[in-house]
Amino acid sequence: MTEDTTYTPPDVWKWESESGGNWASINRPIAGATHEKELPVGKHPLQLYSLATPNGVKVTIMLEELLALGHSGAEYDAYLIKIGDGDQFGSDFVSINPNSKIPALLDHSTDSPTRVFESGAILLYLAEKFSALLPTDHAARTECLSWLFWQMGSAPYLGGGFGHFYKYAPVKIEYCIDRFTMETKRQLDVLDKHLEGKKYMCGDDYTIADIAIWPWYGAVVLNTVYEAAEFLEADGYSNVMRWAKSIDSRPAVKRGRMVNRSFGPLDEQLHERHSSTDFDTRTEDKLNPV
Ligand SMILES: N[C@@H](CCC(=O)N[C@@H](CS)C(=O)NCC(=O)O)C(=O)O
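Above are the sequence and the glutathione SMILES. Below is the predicted complex in structure-token form.
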């Protein structure tokens, strides 16, 4: 390993310049709104403000799964938040999520609208609201929540650590890539060992634990994020691969992945979702063909 000895941190860090690389322009060391911006509100009880990143997709998959199960109260309007343009720093968005990150949900069916932020909290809120996709037996529920929180604690090492330094950082730093590759492979091995002989994370039933974990770890092994499947020898995690493929083929997952997606093939981009028919009529290949 080569050692970089060119930087000595000063006594006090100063925010002087962008750090470079993808996403540098949206990174700030301060919280709060940067501008006044009203968010649109549609006709359904649930209003989602999001983008189809792995964290965003968790929620749209959950909503599509709930609708597929017949919970019509899960009908929702989904609006695109362009994080590259700084939409997450608009005043209305910050009032829903003071942390300025997608996804953010506003439930208008309660006496006064309920705000929910953090994708894990949104999954739990929806599972409890509709009594679905979360076991009711206390021990099984506890196991499911352990995996939900495992994902919330682990994915930043995968996304903010491995994904950032392997794919997005303006320089490839061996120390950082080694450190986060080690951790990512360890996490994949945790999942692989756990999924041995199991259909889903919590046994025979598909739950919010699967919905939380799949958009990150499923995407890595299926090579839909970071283009790192070969580097990580993803094929070796055969239980994760089998589980990832089975979830990938679910119709609700296919729909959920399209909502608030503003990249990739045009026929898979549904920037805003207001009705189940939008998947057939309002994808970008139909609205804005090139
Ligand atoms: N722990 C949060 C993480 C959310 C998050 O990091 N969202 C990213 C996109 S995946 C975002 O909005 N980034 C914009 C920014 O950092 O300004 C969750 O799971 O909801």
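The mean pLDDT is 95.
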